[in-house]
Amino acid sequence: MCPAPLGRDAARFTDWDTVAGTFTYEGEGEDKVGTFHPSADIDWDAWVADVDEHGRGWSSTESRLFEVVAALVVDDRKLALTSVLD
Prior knowledge:
This protein is of the alpha+beta class. The chain has helices at about 5-10, 45-55, 60-75, 80-85; strands spanning about 15-25, 35-40.
C-alpha cells in the first residue's frame, strides 16, 4: 500500500470511470444487492512530470518510493537502484 502522502498526491491525477467499473453482488435470489466499484484512470505521466517540475516535501522514503513507481509507469524513465536503495 502506498504511504498516505503519495496516495493523496496521485489522487489529484486520478479520474474515476463511473461507467466501466465492476459490480459485487451479495445475497441470493430476490435479496441480491449490488455494489458498484468504479475503475480508476491515473494520468501517470502528468503526475510524474508535475512532481519532477514542482517537487514535493516528502520524506526520503516516500521520495524513493515515488522514484520506483515513476520508473515503472513512465516509458524510458531510468532508475538508479543504488540511489533508491541507499
